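From the methods appendix. Each design record in this collection lists the tokenized structure first, followed by the designed amino acid sequence. Records were kept in a plain field format so they could be parsed without special tools. The example shown here is representative of the layout used throughout.

RECORD:
FOLD TOKENS (71 positions):
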């Protein structure tokens, strides 16, 4: 029987994920990512540049720690 991986990680270029005009698409995508139960998840090019957007993503993708950079 296969063992569960010790560490499950992903790095995704989501190119403007928060800029999508279809909120259902965004919600479904974030739900899918949560269900994967990654140990480490890196999201590149989110364009999360305001505290409001960052707070929203932190709520939708709960984690032990998160780091957001302006570039």
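DESIGN:
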């Amino acid at each position: 029987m296969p063992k569960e991986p010790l560490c499950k990680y992903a790095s995704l270029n989501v190119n403007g994920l928060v800029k999508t005009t279809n909120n259902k698409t965004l919600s479904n995508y974030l739900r899918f990512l949560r269900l994967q139960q990654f140990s480490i998840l890196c999201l590149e090019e989110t364009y999360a540049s305001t505290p409001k957007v960052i707070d929203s993503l932190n709520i939708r993708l709960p984690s032990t720690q998160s780091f957001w950079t302006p570039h």
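APPENDIX NOTE: The longest helix spans residues 23-35.
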